[in-house]
Specification:
Blueprint lengths: L2 H14 L3 H16 L4 H16 L5 H5 L1 H11 L2 H17 L7 H21 L2
Helix pairs in contact: 1-2, 1-6, 1-7, 2-6, 2-7, 3-7, 5-6, 6-7
Length: about 130
């Protein structure tokens, strides 16, 4: 599967929710990231921030958007897996914070579900 397919999967998940097809996509992406030498530590650092926001039951858009430069920094200094994670998650972040978005927290939760699946499958294939 190409990065474009995973980018489409995260957009679909953000807008319509997590389903079996999205789960399969997240699993394949996690395998791909593992082959790209992405470490669980790198994923967990970003995921921790997402999880804190989710637990607060509100979306701090500014904090959420600040994940983009963190991902960019990791991508610049890391392996191919870091770059691919940045590419896909950035698409999801931009989809959540689109203008005229009436239900951004719900879309954020969908994003978090996709990200959680990536992390879990990445750990499985460790």
């Amino acid at each position: 599967m190409s990065l474009d397919k995973w980018k489409e999967s995260i957009k679909k998940c953000v807008n319509f929710g997590f389903d079996a097809q999205i789960d399969d996509s997240a699993e394949e992406f996690a395998k791909h990231l593992k082959k790209g030498n992405l470490t669980t530590t790198k994923i967990r650092g970003i995921y921790g921030t997402v999880k804190k926001m989710e637990m607060s039951q509100r979306l701090d858009e500014a904090e959420f958007i600040r994940l983009k430069p963190r991902l960019a920094y990791d991508a610049k200094r890391g392996k191919q897996g870091n770059k691919d994670l940045k590419e896909v998650l950035t698409v999801g972040i931009l989809e959540v914070v689109k203008k005229n978005n009436k239900d951004s927290f719900h879309k954020f939760k969908n994003f978090a579900s996709f990200f959680e699946a990536i992390l879990a499958y990445h750990k499985v294939y460790e």
